[in-house]
Amino acid sequence: MPLLEPKPGALRPHGVAGPAPDRVPDHRADGTPDPLRAELTALLGAEKVLWKVSDLVRYASDASPYRFVPQVVVVAEDVDDVSAVLSYAHGRGREVVFRAAGTSLNGQALGEDVLVDVRRHWTGIEVLEEGRRARIRPGTTVARANAALARYGRLLGPDPASAIACTVGGVVANNASGMTAGTTRNSYRTLASLTFVLPGGTVVDTADPRADEELARAEPALCRGLMEIKREIEGDPELVARIRAKYEIKNTTGYRLDAYLDGATPVGILRGLMVGSEGTLGFIAEVVFDTVPLERELTSALLFFPSLPAAAAAVPRFNAAGALAVEVMDGNTLRASVSVDGVPADWAALP
User: Fold this and answer.
1) Which of 118, 165, 120, 94 is nearest to 285 (CA)?
2) Contact predicate 197/86, CB 8 Å
3) Directed axis angle between helix 220-234 and helix 266-273, to 10°?
4) Res 328: pLDDT
5) What global pTM score does this model have?
6) pLDDT digits 0-9 by tens, 83-111
7) pLDDT category, 275, cuts 50, 70, 90?
8) pLDDT of 306-324, one tens digit each?
9) Taken in order 272, 105, 137, 179, is the CA torsion positive or negative?
10) pLDDT recorded at residue 210
11) Nearest partner of 172 among 197, 152, 145, 191, judged by Cα
């Protein structure tokens, strides 16, 4: 059977032998328990709290292979709702996870306590400075943002493969970049400012000239801690060099420690740390991007090399020539693709 021929029967059940192994336990059948349900309803209003077990199961899966049933789902409409939920959870030791498109393959949009839906009411883009900047709400897809910018000959730097479905908030929170962003066009490098909500409910707009003053008043311990870490890092030249070297190549692992080197104040440090923090530091409520030029004419090429080392050795030359993206396909990948219409049959004989 050809590799890509569908097997529709593979997904059909072959008999019912009892309850599904991932069924919700009986004690969850009534949905969100009290007092959680009653307290959030009183705080936000009944229309913003999804508590039925059918709602909880609906939000238990995303594009990843994982499944976590939340205790409750909150549909936040604005920053005030998010601030209220975070303040409530902070005071009661509860966990909060934010979910937008749910396109990540690693389960970041899943949680087992309070899940906050920030897709429904969080879309919109405002084009600024003839397209050189764009103010975008976190539930806006990358494709929609780029469509609005295209008429100005601009687009966002981050270019994830799931641009048609993934949202800007998730892109920034994961520092998703795609094939063409590299180290210069990713979220960290093209983010002009952002508005975020800290776990205690404090709202910070990094573009506000008074942001550091207001943050110091609302979160003095946080500000002191950020500056202490900055001084510790900058006092160790070897550590500084290691951090700089880490981000000379594409790297989205862990927090952006170079934020401590690039930011001069607590707000400046947090602006960088929020990128790639996967929602662990707060909620990204709005972003302003510096956009990049939209290339109207593009050329692609397929080149064959005798070995993977030979192909890798050519990459610096491609970069020097101005290539936007370079992707490698090994022999196994090329041979497997011969069953696709239009692919040359002689690729099956490639080494």
Assistant:
1) 118
2) yes
3) 80
4) 87
5) 0.80
6) 999 999 999 999 999 988 888 788 888 99
7) very high
8) 888 999 999 899 889 888 8
9) positive
10) 97
11) 191
Q: How many CB atoms lie within 10 A of CB 78?
A: 11
pLDDT at 53 over 80: yes
Indicate if the pLDDT at residue 63 is higher than 80: yes
Angle at 35 between CA 31 and CA 36, to 5 degrees: 60
* Residues 112-170: tens digit of each pLDDT: 999 999 888 999 999 999 999 999 999 999 999 999 999 999 999 998 888 888 899 98
What's the burial of 115, exposed, middle or buried (CB within 10 Å: 0-12/13-18/19+)? buried
Q: How far apart are CA 47 and CA 70, in angstroms?
A: 18
Taking only the tens place, the pLDDT of each residue in 278-294 is 889 999 999 999 999 99
Place of tokens 């080149």: 303
Determine the Cα–Cα distance for residues 44 and 323; give it in Å rounded to an integer.
50
* Interatomic CA distance for residues 152 and 155, integer angstroms: 9
Distances 332 to 32, 195, 207, 237 between C-alpha atoms, Å: 49, 46, 49, 45
Specify the long-range contacts of residues 332-337, CB closer than 8 Å, at least 24 apart: 336/3
CA–CA distance, 320 with 326 (Å, rounded to integer): 12
What structural domains and CATH numbers belong to the chain?
Answer: 17-117 (3.30.43.10), 125-293 (3.30.465.10), 308-349 (no CATH)
Structure tokens at 292: 């990049």
